[in-house]
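Reviewer 2 asked us to include a model.

Predict the structure of this chain.
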Amino acid sequence: MLVVEDDPDLGDTIVTFLKEEGLEAKLARDGDQAMRMVDQLSPSAMILDLMMPRRDGFSVLRELRADGRIANLPVIVVTAIFGLSERLYATELGAADYVTKPFELDELLERVRNVLASRHEEPAATESR
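Predicted model (structure tokens):
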């Protein structure tokens, strides 16, 4: 699991919580670092903040989608942006889920588990055909 969050306290809190729940988790502090870590780590999923300096979450989603990596990487967008147009745009760019801040860590964990479970179900469904 790759957590991309520029707020150091929130990023550390999410990573620590996920690790306590038995998931491997690493933290990227911005979009540039996230893109390097996607290539290095090949994470199972990503939690992505939209509003970050240098390269925002939309930019990360666009790059992942452009080179095909988004198809294999479920992305949960986490943001303080409440607008429907932003939510639709994130979904159009390939986000698997959208969580608005503030949120409960248990809710985020449930969504992480859902995208990981659906990721593991897809190959099995393909094999049975």
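The helical segments are 8-20, 31-41, 57-66, 84-92, 105-127. The chain has five helices and five strands. We have added this to the supplementary material.
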